[in-house]
Design brief:
The protein has seven helices and 13 strands. With 280 residues, it is an alpha+beta fold. The radius of gyration is 20 Å and the shape is globular. It binds a DNA duplex (16 and 16 nucleotides) through helix 6.
Length: 280
DNA sequence: ACGAGGTCCTGCGAGC
DNA sequence: TGCTCGCAGGACCTCG
């Protein structure tokens, strides 16, 4: 669930607790979330390492270690990182049953990865593996290199629905179902339109809508529909400013009382919210 | 090369 | 009240 703004918020929250800290111990409580590495090797690889940076790439968290390896966490639907004060060990007896990974730091703090559905994934990547991983993901929408022209190039070659193209991580990083719905409404573009059918002015509007929606959501610390929490355990606030997502049947904020937000599952089986009145 | 569809998991709300 | 069913913000894999 966490999309770009949510992962950006989590990264900002956990960054000061991890950066320049030494991992005293890492413990994997749910090894099925590890990909390409076993529990013992993963725990050994982290123990004693200095965390040099905490970053976000697309919807994924990246912890950089001083031996150039990276821990990549994909929260997917229900994963979250949360800072917990380690406290006296005895008092943590009532352990969270959904905890997947504990990273204990020399500060005494613990950063926990928790994931109810465990659809999330954790990778341990050496530099060549990270280079391949990074190269397989599209451009970051909040970087200067992401221009309307770049979006036009991304959409131009795709005959699939524009909403599906926006959510394809190989084409563009970080946009998931919530922000695809919101950006398409903001740009007044019908989500089912073939991506390559958008005119230049529509691409321009969609570019501004994608960038603007993501940036505003980051300022609001993300959207909490259900599970998402920030790195400090708080809900986000952007759910209060959604125009269409999960608002089927309510009046369109742009059309006023005349038109109501519709819901369809016709695109990729995912919930698509749109206004039949103003999105063309 | 690209796109469609299944799969991984658990919890929750709607409906009976 | 208690059960079953369908759905949930993602990404990877296989197949055609």
């Amino acid at each position: 669930v966490p999309e770009l703004p949510e992962v950006e918020t989590i990264a900002a929250d956990v960054r000061p607790h991890l950066t320049a800290r030494v991992v005293v111990a890492a413990r994997v409580l749910r090894p099925d979330v590890l990909r390409g590495v076993g529990r013992a090797r993963f725990e050994r690889a982290l123990a004693g390492r200095l965390v040099t940076a905490v970053r976000r790439r697309a919807k994924h968290l990246v912890l950089e270690l001083d031996d150039e390896h990276r821990v990549v966490i994909q929260p997917r639907m229900t994963g979250s990182l949360i800072v917990r004060d380690a406290g006296p060990p005895r008092r943590t007896a009532a352990r969270d049953p959904y905890d997947v990974l504990h990273i204990d730091l020399d500060s005494g703090a613990r950063v926990a990865y928790r994931d109810v559905r465990r659809l999330g994934a954790i990778f341990l990547l050496d530099p060549p593996a990270w280079a391949r991983y990074d190269a397989a993901i599209g451009p970051e929408p909040l970087e200067a290199a992401f221009t309307a022209e770049r979006l036009a190039a991304i959409l131009g070659r795709a005959g699939l629905a524009v909403k599906k193209a926006l959510m394809d991580q190989r084409r563009l990083a970080g946009v998931g179902n919530i922000y695809a719905n919101e950006a398409l409404w903001l740009a007044a573009v019908d989500p089912s339109r073939p991506a390559s059918s958008l005119r230049a002015d529509e691409v321009e509007r969609l570019h501004r809508a994608v960038v603007g929606t993501l940036a505003r959501s980051i300022r609001g610390r993300g959207t909490t529909v259900r599970d998402y929490r920030t790195g400090t355990g708080q809900p986000g606030t952007f759910q209060g400013r959604l125009a269409v997502y999960q608002r089927a049947g309510r009046p369109c904020p742009r059309c006023g009382g005349g038109k109501r937000i519709a819901l369809t599952h016709a695109i990729d089986g995912r919930a698509t919210y749109f206004c039949p009145g103003c999105q063309h």
